[in-house]
Design goal:
By secondary structure, the protein is an alpha/beta fold. It has a single domain, classed as Vaccinia Virus protein VP39 (Rossmann fold, 3-Layer(aba) Sandwich). Helix content is 40%, strand content 19%. It is built from ten helices and ten strands. The chain has an eight-stranded mixed β-sheet, sandwiched between helices. Strand 4, helix 6 and strand 5 form a beta-alpha-beta unit. Helix 1 crosses helix 4 and helix 7 runs parallel beside helix 8. The model has no long low-confidence stretch (mean pLDDT 96). The structure holds S-adenosylmethionine. The site of S-adenosylmethionine has 19 residues, from loops.
Length: 283
């Protein structure tokens, strides 16, 4: 059942959107001195080698991070994300050349400070072992090989009452769609001021519409939806786009995304590419 490996997809166009939003959100949290928790329900391995067999087999990063890493026309809003990836490569390999791509824990590790902590969950034995190794010298990180949905509910509210929660399931099972939203709704009932980021793939439009309805039919407030689709919705198998629901986004995130989305369309997309940015539920 557990066959999904993010190593095949690391650095693709969907990671670019997800991880640039994560970088902007975590950067925003560090503007206050007070520490916060980063909770990652589906953390993956933490770091990926783009020259290994997984990434090379699909080559997905080539229409993602590879097209941005050396761009000299980056909008200001993407600079920290790209610089962070260059810094990781430089530190590990001595060169800014793109050979490593950080997963969500890899991004958090670069941004979190001594007063912040990270709680990372993954079920896959191989990815969990890699994640454990990746976080070995990261003092304020706590990794668990257990269900991330339950993990989120057990962790909120954190003692600091400041947190960013990332929910990024593999969606191998259709039940992940409603389960991810339900987890956020339950977590919100316990901790309404947390920031929740939920990633979703656009494979079947009705499943995404149902997620949006599940949010609007509940008492969750202040939900921003962003979506970037390389090609139009299709009945064929495969992901045509991806998006994020962000509950309690940083206040400038929507205007930052207004700059990022047309840039990504220009760099990664075609005339068929579309994006949406919508305040799905008001404050
Ligand atoms: C999309 S990947 C995560 C990628 C990562 N968040 C990133 O941005 O780099 C999904 C991960 O969820 C893990 N997984 C699947 N079901 C899970 C569950 N119920 N709880 C925790 N992890 C799970 C998989 O092993 C896989 O590593």
């Amino acid at each position: 059942m557990l066959s999904y490996r993010h190593a095949f997809h690391a650095g693709n166009f969907a990671d670019v959107l997800k991880h640039s939003v994560l970088t902007l959100t975590l950067d925003y949290m560090t503007r206050k001195e007070k520490g916060f928790s980063y909770i990652d329900s589906h953390a993956g391995a933490g770091m990926y080698q783009l020259n290994d067999d997984y990434a090379q087999k699909t080559g997905e990063y080539k229409n993602g991070i590879e097209k941005l890493i050396n761009a000299n026309d980056l909008p200001e809003e993407l600079i920290n994300y790209i610089e962070l990836i260059k810094a990781i490569n430089k530190k590990e390999t001595g060169s800014e050349q793109l050979t490593l791509y950080p997963g969500s824990p890899g991004i958090a590790k670069q941004i979190l400070r001594r007063q912040d902590n990270a709680h990372l969950f993954d079920l896959h034995p191989t990815d969990f072992a890699l994640l454990t190794e990746f976080t070995q010298r990261w003092k304020k990180s706590f990794v668990k090989q257990s269900d991330g949905y339950q993990g989120v509910l057990a962790m909120v509210p954190p003692p600091s009452r400041r947190a960013v929660v990332l929910i990024d399931p593999p969606y191998e099972l259709k039940e992940d769609y409603p389960k991810a939203v339900k987890t956020i709704i339950k977590a919100y009932q316990k901790f309404a001021t947390g920031t929740y980021i939920l990633w979703y793939p656009v494979v079947t439009r009705t499943l995404v519409d149902k997620m949006a309805r599940d949010f609007t039919n509940n008492s969750v407030k202040n939900v921003l939806q962003v979506e970037f689709c390389l090609t139009p919705d299709s009945d064929e198998y495969g992901m045509t786009g991806s998006g994020l629901f962000i509950v309690n986004p940083p206040w400038q995130l929507a205007s930052q995304l207004e700059k990022i989305l047309p840039y990504l369309k220009n760099k990664l997309g075609s005339q068929q590419t579309t994006f949406i940015l919508e305040q799905l539920i008001n404050e």
